[in-house]
Amino acid sequence: MADPRLLEAATAAAREWQHEPWPVGVGWPEGVAHRAPRVVVGTVCSGDRWNRAPATIRALAEQHDSLCEDMEAAALALTCLSHDVPFLAIKDVSNNELLSATTTGRVVELTQGELARRAAAVTLATLKWLGSDR
Fold first, then answer.
1. Which residues are CB-neighbours of 3 under 8 A, at least 6 positions away?
2. What pTM did the predictor assign?
3. In which domain, by residue range, is 90 found?
4. With contact defined as beta carbons under 8 Å apart, do 134 and 12 qualify?
C-alpha cells in the first residue's frame, strides 16, 4: 500500500501540475485526440515478467483493478516496508503493449527524451509540496 501522506501530497501536487503534451511526432496513436497528460490515482499491478499478450494484460487489470502494470513497484514496496520507509509509486506510462508502436519495437526510438519526464516532474512537485507550509 502507498503511504497515505505521500499519496495525499502527490495527489495535491498533481492537481496543480501542468506539463506539455507528448510531441505528436513521437508516435501519438492515430484516432486519439492529442491532449495534455492525464493524472490518475490507483493500483499498479506489479509482476516478475513482461506481459505482452492482450488477454493477459486485460485479465490482470480486471483481477487487480489496476491502471497499469510494471516490474519494479512491488519489489520497491517490499524493500521500503522491510526498512519502515514510506512508499509511493509514481509512474509515467509511455508505452502500452496494446499499441503498435510498442509491439513493433518502435517505442524506444519514439520516446527518446520523453521517458519518465512527467513522472520526474510530478515527483519533484510532490517533494516541493511536502516541503511547503501547506
1. 86, 87, 88
2. 0.74
3. 4-131
4. yes
Cell of 101: 508502436
Per-residue confidence in pLDDT tens, the chain, 134 aa: 899 999 999 999 988 887 777 776 666 667 777 777 778 899 988 878 877 788 888 898 899 999 888 888 889 999 999 999 999 999 877 666 655 555 555 555 556 667 678 888 889 999 999 988 66
d(CA 119, CA 39): 10
Among 83, 73, 72, which residue's Cα sits nearest to residue 42? 73
CB 61 within 8 A of CB 77: no
Q: What whole-number distance in Å separates Cα of residue 82 and Cα of residue 21?
A: 38
User: Grid coordinates standing for 20?
Assistant: 506539455
**What's the number of domains the chain is made of?**
1
Q: Which of 132, 133, 119, 134 is nearest to 14 (CA)?
A: 119
Location of C-alpha cell 512491488: 74
C-alpha 129 chain-centroid distance: 19
Crossing angle between the packed helical segments 4-16 and 117-131, to the nearest 10 degrees: 110
- The cell numbers describing 128, all together, are 516541493
- The pLDDT of residue 98: 59
